[in-house]
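Need residues for this backbone.
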């Protein structure tokens, strides 16, 4: 899975947290066999919730772009081949899903 956060590739220590793009922190989680870098466990939980939510609603995907922040909510576009779906996601303080809706 390729991940782009606010316009920049992310998901490794060098590129930044797979959810928020931060380069601080030291937390890894394996998702679909891919070891992803996160700044903290809450970002890992939030990302997992997004990935699982999209897979449940649409199926597996190859690229995920995430735009936004904790306060604004995030527009998440999943792509496979030439297909794409965008979802709006907002989290609670605990990185649980508060809002999850398909936008297109
Ligand atoms: Zn983060």
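Answer:
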């Amino acid at each position: 899975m390729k991940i782009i956060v606010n316009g920049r590739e992310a998901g490794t220590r060098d590129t930044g947290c797979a959810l928020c793009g931060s380069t601080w922190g030291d937390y890894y989680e394996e998702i679909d066999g891919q070891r992803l870098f996160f700044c903290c466990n809450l970002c890992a939980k939030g990302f997992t919730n997004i990935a699982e939510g999209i897979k449940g609603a649409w199926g597996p995907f190859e690229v995920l772009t995430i735009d936004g922040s904790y306060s604004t909510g995030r527009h998440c576009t999943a792509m496979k081949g030439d297909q794409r779906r965008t979802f709006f996601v907002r989290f609670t303080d605990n990185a649980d899903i508060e809002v999850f809706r398909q936008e297109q």
